[in-house]
Amino acid sequence: MSTHAKRERLLLADLLETTGPQAPTLCEDWTTRDLAAHVVVRERRPDAAGGILVKQLAPRLERVMAEFTAKPYEELIQLIRTGPPRFSPFSLKQVDEMSNIVEFYVHTEDVRRAQPDWTPRELDPVFQDALWSRLERTARLVGRGVPTGLVLRRPNGQTVVAHRGTPVVTVTGEPSELVLFAYGRQSAAKVELDGEENAIAKLQETKQLGI
Hints:
Blueprint: H1 3-19, H2 32-44, H3 46-49, H4 58-69, H5 73-82, H6 93-112, H7 125-142, E1 149-153, E2 159-163, E3 168-172, H8 175-182, E4 192-194, H9 197-205
Parallel strand pairs: 1-3
Antiparallel strand pairs: 1-2, 3-4
Helix pairs in contact: 1-5, 1-6, 2-4, 2-5, 7-8
């Protein structure tokens, strides 16, 4: 596992343990138990995890999710901590770096920011750069369904076009906040939006942002 992905994995496991199985998350109606089951299924049941993106596989995913959600909460947390089994593609360092740095950061914030007493945490510049690198690669995918043009901008001026179109809305923030915004956590992300008022309203209301 990469350093950043491993850190976020362990932080997520600690948060899930601290908050307990019935705490809210930013993932709509998911509790922390549901989120924990999702993480485990994604890494350990590739035969079902495809249902996250492929509608035809969704019924199988629902069955497997129900199976894992029913497991003891402590077991789910331990499975997250220990990481994927050797046969999983996520056990490969390159795949882990590509797939899990954003996955675990976003889900960590899903737990943190759903709690009433959450406070922002400072992230080191290297981690911010790593998140930006991933966002550059996935921006077009996460922005494919938005109803406006969408540009994501770092405070240092670096930009990436998530969706071409007019009118354009420019979203400015640290990479960590832009990732949350781009992955459907618009209401929780600490960003600034610039553009026509109607375009901003449409962007904030869209349910298609994120994957």
